[in-house]
Design a protein that fits this description.
Length: 227
């Protein structure tokens, strides 16, 4: 099971974006809309990391971070629209492990979060999946079929990982890139079909990725014949 992350931020749109993206990448995510609610959740539950906004009504993120540090060593990544170097320094001085100004690329946030977790919980990034003959090492982004290494492009790997994590479940074609953490990439359905075709060829197991006509794709657990 992936790491458990608490997002403390009053921006509902950002909450939805982070929750969706992190869940797609194997994390459990909970939310709190202000500092007091976030501290209450930390008192009641165990988390592997906290994503903390600086600019919040009432208790700001700097004060929340100070209070977290009085009771816990949980990693804290601060998020803020501020670009002032002083604010960044103060955030680190009160105990934050990293600092990321908004707007940010979700992939950069994910990379920073994983880097922090590797230091405090090495097993977080050690996810390995085995679906039929296909083995996927998430940390090293290596794929093999029956022990044979398979070379994939970055987007092919992300699509395969999304399908494998949801093996047996149909992923609609228009949601596949989002499930793969590529929601910001705008492509046609035909382009997605091409990526799937390349994956089938490279895996040498065309029946593993099944087309559900008019809907999308499914990674077949039993290798049932697909289109």
């Amino acid at each position: 099971m992936g790491a458990r992350v608490l997002v403390i931020d009053d921006d509902l749109r950002l909450h939805d974006l982070l929750s969706s993206y992190l869940k797609q990448n194997g994390f459990e995510v909970e939310r709190a809309l202000d500092g007091a609610a976030g501290l209450a959740k930390l008192e009641l539950g165990s988390y592997d990391a906290v994503l903390l906004d600086v600019m919040m009504p009432g208790m700001d993120g700097l004060e929340v971070c100070r209070r977290i540090r009085k009771r816990s060593e949980v990693p804290v990544v601060m998020l803020t629209a501020r670009g002032d170097e002083t604010d960044r320094i103060v955030g680190l001085e009160v105990g934050a492990d990293d600092y990321l100004p908004k707007p940010f690329n979700p992939r950069e946030l994910l990379a920073r979060l994983k880097a922090i977790l590797r230091r405090v919980r090495p097993e977080v990034d050690a996810e390995r999946l085995q679906v039929g003959p296909v083995a996927i090492d998430v940390a090293s982004r290596l794929v093999s079929v029956d022990g044979r290494p398979v070379e994939l492009t970055g987007i092919e790997f992300d699509i395969l990982l999304a399908l494998a994590r949801r093996s047996g479940q149909v992923i609609p074609r228009d949601r596949l890139l989002s499930a793969a953490g590529r929601g910001g990439v705008i492509v046609s359905e035909r382009t997605i079909d091409v990526h799937i075709s390349h994956l089938r060829q490279k895996l040498g197991e065309a029946r593993l990725i099944k087309t559900v006509r008019g809907v999308g794709y499914v990674f077949a657990r039993d290798g049932a014949a697909g289109d």
